[in-house]
Amino acid sequence: MAKEWGYASHNGPEHWHELYPIAKGDNQSPIELHTKDIKHDPSLQPWSASYDPGSAKTILNNGKTCRVVFDDTYDRSMLRGGPLSGPYRLRQFHLHWGSSDDHGSEHTVDGVKYAAELHLVHWNPKYNTFGEALKQPDGIAVVGIFLKIGREKGEFQILLDALDKVKTKGKEAPFTHFDPSCLFPACRDYWTYHGSFTTPPCEECIVWLLLKEPMTVSSDQMAKLRSLFASAENEPPVPLVGNWRPPQPVKGRVVRASFK
Ligand SMILES: [Zn+2]
Fold first, then answer.
1. Among 119, 127, 158, 253, which is 20 to 30 Å from 59 by CA?
2. Contact 33, 212 (CB under 8 A)
């Protein structure tokens, strides 16, 4: 594999384990969800997010995704409840998407691929640093939200409008006063399981909360996301699309539902 991982045939998901052996581990993400096999767990609590819009800092194009970064030096933007044993701090969110509207999500639901998947990454401050949390099975909590094509979502447009400032790899711009809970669907029902980051090094430290209800965005909004480049300003242009990892083996793990 080339020095840097990616999503192309020479450095894509089939090659990641060469540099990151855990990518073939027993708790990898994403997975396929088969809803008829998923049991409701009545012990699962509702979850809540209280985000401080002032903790949003920057938006960045790292050539693999666009990411919004938050100040996580103290308890400002927090996720609580659900399957979590304590509060988790929001660190960043980012997206995965396809080359067209008919695929792009990482998790699939009964064979359905959504157009994109939003990941809000939180860490457990009982481990003191993000780096330490990455080494713990319950170190990270990711809220995953599917993006489905339909009506335009106004709140999502705020993010899309900022993409013009980070068109190419390596660009970063201020992105402040944004509360990502404005993107959440009305229904808080979720599936949960233990898994990993879907990008190298694919650490197995994640409590997943996958929301059952997708958020709806327009086809034009998806097209705007695909207008980013995986290449730097001074390089031949390569569109940033297809940044999703396919489903990984479940290996006996159990997915639980918060709802009947
Ligand atoms: Zn992700």
1. 127
2. no
